[in-house]
Write a structure and sequence with these properties.
Blueprint: E1 2-8, E2 11-16, E3 28-37, H1 39-46, E4 56-57, E5 62-69, E6 81-84, H2 94-97, E7 135-138, H3 141-144, E8 146-147, H4 154-157, H5 163-173, E9 181-185, H6 189-200, E10 205-210, H7 213-221, E11 225-228, H8 234-241, E12 247-252, H9 270-283, H10 303-311, E13 312-320, H11 333-338, E14 342-345, H12 350-362, E15 374-377, H13 381-389, E16 398-401
Parallel strand pairs: 9-10, 9-12, 10-11, 12-13, 13-14, 15-16
Antiparallel strand pairs: 1-2, 1-4, 3-5, 3-7, 3-16, 5-6, 6-8
Helix pairs in contact: 5-6, 5-12, 8-10
């Protein structure tokens, strides 16, 4: 079968690989009908997240049809149409029973303290082969898989596998509630769903920050007030827009590949620019950007972390869902402490959030497919990755179709 395979930093290929097989009694084999490219995948290719094992199939977003089940998968049968949560959970350990499914004690074969297990990630996350393939082995399928109603399409469901629940989780841990003024840093696909999620949770005003015109325009269409950080200082703009008080809640959906301003009043001075350069060298020492600007790490790893602390009100709340590598050790803790901030962060507890979002989509409350901008055959996956990596206009969220039959 065809699959997108990680061979090294800056090196991904569409390979022929063996079809997956059942290994454990709680496994299932799913034939993928849709997968997607995520910004997290770019961290692995750019070198800002280490530990990837050559030969690992990429991708952690998937929708498909069950083909085979293990003996202990008693709630699914061949032919069932399912969405695959990006993170893996057993369903019976204490964290899973408490709804903290991203911190499952059993899913990660590296041990209970190893952290989140997910598809298509580094050695520390399993590793598990990912979902940018024609078929995939799903671990703990009896707990993890979620059946899809007939009126939820593949285009809608693929956005329920990771980015919509991740964004909703971000708005939730940021404390968004009725009447909140919320700020979203980053208007990529997760940022768009963070805007939508903040609105669903009752925010009356949402301010979205980015520098790319197409992303900012989509954010405006989704109901946000927009700030271009290449044209104005977002900290000054947000303070002005909030009467000097600041935001109640801030959601960081950017992570370690953040970019600093390249123009305008927010452009860093030489000292700050040097600090950012040192952070890039620390977190992506093996990065291999090409001469034409492919696979370039973000140039301001801690920029959004700093801006978030600046723009949130005293005793406000910050939710961090942008991915930061374990090597990232910079945080403005002193300013955060002296503002009495509450800061929550982490990987989304997908299995706890997806069912409620499936219901919202099935009932017509929200159509997530409006954020989907590109649909590509898996045969064109490498060129799609390159366009998405360079943030070409219009390439906000990319769906891959693993098969044409």
């Amino acid at each position: 079968m065809k699959a997108v395979v990680w061979h090294g930093i800056g090196d991904i290929r569409l390979d022929d690989v063996p079809e997956p097989q059942l290994k454990d009694s709680t496994d299932a084999i799913v034939r993928l009908t849709a997968s997607a490219i995520c910004g997290t995948d770019l961290h692995f290719i750019r070198g800002t997240m280490s530990g990837m094992v050559p030969g690992t199939i990429l991708g952690h977003e998937g929708v498909g049809v069950v083909e085979k089940v293990g003996d202990d998968v008693r709630n699914f049968a061949p032919g069932d149409r399912v969405v695959i949560p990006s993170t893996i959970s057993c369903g019976y350990c204490p964290p899973c029973r408490a709804g903290n499914t991203a911190q499952c004690d059993n899913a990660n074969p590296n041990g209970s303290s190893a952290g989140t297990a997910f598809y298509g990630g580094p050695k520390e996350s399993g590793p598990f082969d990912g979902l940018q393939a024609e078929k995939a082995r799903i671990a703990y399928a009896n707990s993890s898989l979620i059946k899809l109603p007939d009126n939820v399409s593949d285009d809608q469901a693929i956005l329920l596998s990771d980015i919509f629940p991740t964004a909703y989780f971000g708005a939730d841990i940021a404390g968004v509630k009725e009447g909140s003024v919320a700020v979203v840093f980053g208007c990529g696909p997760v940022g768009q769903f963070a805007i939508i999620s903040a609105r669903l949770l009752g925010a009356t005003r949402i301010i979205a920050v980015d520098r790319l015109p197409d992303r900012l325009e989509m954010a405006r269409r989704n109901g946000a007030e927009i700030v271009n950080f290449d044209k104005e200082d977002p900290t000054e703009a947000i303070k002005r827009l909030t009467g000097g008080v600041g935001a109640d809640c801030v959601i960081d959906v950017v992570g370690i590949d953040a970019q600093h301003a390249h123009d305008g009043p927010a452009k860093p001075d030489k000292q700050k620019a040097q600090k950012f350069t040192e952070q890039v060298q620390q977190n992506a020492p093996d990065a291999k950007p090409t001469k034409d600007g492919q696979w370039v790490p973000g140039d301001g790893p801690s920029q959004v972390l700093e801006w978030a602390v600046e723009v949130v009100k005293k005793a406000g709340q910050i939710g961090i869902i942008g991915v930061y590598a374990p090597s990232m050790t910079t945080y403005p803790i002193g300013k955060a402490m002296n503002k009495n901030l509450t800061i929550r962060m982490g990987n989304c507890d997908h299995r706890a959030y997806i069912p409620r979002l499936v219901n919202l989509v099935a009932s017509g409350v929200i159509d997530p497919s409006k954020v989907l901008t590109e649909q590509e055959d898996i045969q064109d996956a490498i060129s799609a990755y390159k366009a998405f990596d360079k943030r070409q206009p219009g390439w906000i969220k990319v769906e891959l179709e693993p098969q044409t039959a």
